[in-house]
Design goal:
Helix content: 40-55%
Shape: globular
Number of helices: 9
Strand order of the largest sheet: 2-1-3-4-6
Strand content: 5-15%
Largest sheet: 5 strands, parallel
Distance between the termini: 69 Å
Structural class: alpha/beta
Number of domains: 1
CATH superfamily: SGNH hydrolase
CATH class: Alpha Beta
Length: 235
């Protein structure tokens, strides 16, 4: 087959594959918005808060970060520290990247930015390597916009292999594989890394439902444990 014929054949094959979703699909490191009304509402709300407010601690992430607002641990441990949490359930790295590059940093100048993102990318089928690339893009964007702030990058919390009801569940092995790559993003000068996932496992290495009822999201006790793991960083 001649070179030109081969090129034409490849173009004809790649087009349908990409359109069908079978082509290259990594978007973890690209800024991608979501068009759901609630996502748009929260993004606008956080952007307005970033434009007009201030904070010393800024939490960025997905539903686990968003969930702080529904649990007493936030009032107990962080409200008095002038902290803010900007989280949206279902977000992957690409969605958080869009948010922080389109208004959610604004005029805020926090001392520390706490980032927890990437577990939803596992649900999307992204590889640990691609997730680490996406998280790296998020960290780089925060550092570019907030050069005087410290970044505390958190390792992904354990998650179950399913969300079926049980007393405990085996953790997804992709989480430690992802965290091993996230750890390489720290420089221990302006970007620090903390993985306290072990605190969410019982003595047999399983996730107890008392901390994660659906083996993904945190209970009141889970948020209290989360806060206890973070507190030493801010004393």
């Amino acid at each position: 087959m001649k070179a030109m014929d081969r090129l034409l054949w490849m173009m004809l094959m790649i087009g349908p594959l990409a359109a069908s979703g079978c082509g290259p699909s990594r978007v973890t490191d690209r800024a991608v918005p979501r068009d759901e009304p609630e996502w748009v509402r929260l993004h606008d709300l956080y952007s307005e808060q970033a434009r007009t407010g201030s904070c010393l601690l800024l939490f960025l992430g997905d539903s686990i970060t968003q969930g702080w607002g529904n649990h007493p641990a936030w009032q107990t441990h962080f409200a008095s520290r002038n902290a803010a949490h900007f989280g949206i359930g279902g977000d992957g790295t690409q969605h958080l990247l869009y948010r922080i590059e389109n208004g959610e940093i604004g005029q805020l100048r926090p001392e520390t930015v706490i980032i927890l993102i990437g577990t939803n990318n596992l649900s999307m089928g992204d590889s640990p390597a691609d997730i680490a690339v996406g998280v790296g893009k998020v960290v780089a964007s925060v550092r570019r916009q907030l050069p005087k702030s410290e970044v505390l990058l958190l390792g992904l919390l354990p998650r179950g292999l399913s969300r079926l009801k049980a007393e405990s569940q085996e953790p997804d092995p992709r989480v430690p594989a992802t965290n091993a790559l996230l750890k390489t993003l720290k420089d221990d000068r302006s970007v620090f890394y903390l993985d306290f996932g072990q605190a969410f496992l019982n003595a047999t290495g399983r996730i107890p439902a008392t901390l994660m009822p659906d083996f993904l999201h945190l209970s009141d006790e889970g948020y209290e444990r989360f806060a206890e793991c973070l507190n030493p960083c801010f004393r």
